Amino acid sequence: MNTTILRKSVLGIAGLAFAGGVFAGPATHAHAAPAMDAKPVAVVQVDKPAVDKGKLIPHGVQGAQSRIDLGDEQTANVKAIIDATKKSGMDERAAVVAIATSLQESKLENLGHLGDRNDHDSQGLFQQRPSSGWGTVEQITDPGYATTAFLKGLKQVDGWQDMPLTKAAQTVQVSAYPDHYAQWEQQAADLVAQHWNG
Question: At residue 123, what are phi and psi to the nearest 5 degrees?
C-alpha cells in the first residue's frame, strides 16, 4: 500500500474521531464519572462560645438592681475593661466586678476633672485619685491603664472571688458609699456575657 494513501487514511480516521468527539459532546453516561446527588448546602453559623453565667454572679445579686442605657463611648469602655481584664490574666468575674465598679463610679464614662462636683481629684472610669497613688491624670483617664490599676488592687484582696461584689469593690475603692456597688451587678454580668467573647 502506498505510504501517502496510508497516511491520509490514518489522518482521516483520526480527524473523524476528533470531530466526532467535539460534536458529540461529553462522554456518554456509561463512561462518565458517577454523578453526585445534588443536595442543598447548609450554611452553618458558628456562634461565639457562651460565657458560664454561674461564674458571673456566683452568689446571686444583692438588693435592688439598677440599669442604664449605654451609648457608644460607654460600650467602648466596657470592651476596654474586658480587654484589660483578659490581659491581666483574670476571669469573667473580675470583669463583672470592674464593670459594676465603673458603673457606680462614673456610669462607664471616662470623666475628667469635674470642678466643684469633683470628689477631690478623682477622675476616669473608676474615679481614681492621683493624690492617692493611682497614677497620673493621663494614666487614670486611660481606660486600659485605669482598669489594670483597679484589677491590681483587686488581686491583692484575699478571697475576692468568694466575696459579695460590693465588698470586693469597696475593699479596692474605699468609697464613702460601700454598698452602692451591689446595684450594678446584674447589668455588669449581662455586659460581660455579651462582650467577653466578642
Answer: -150, 170
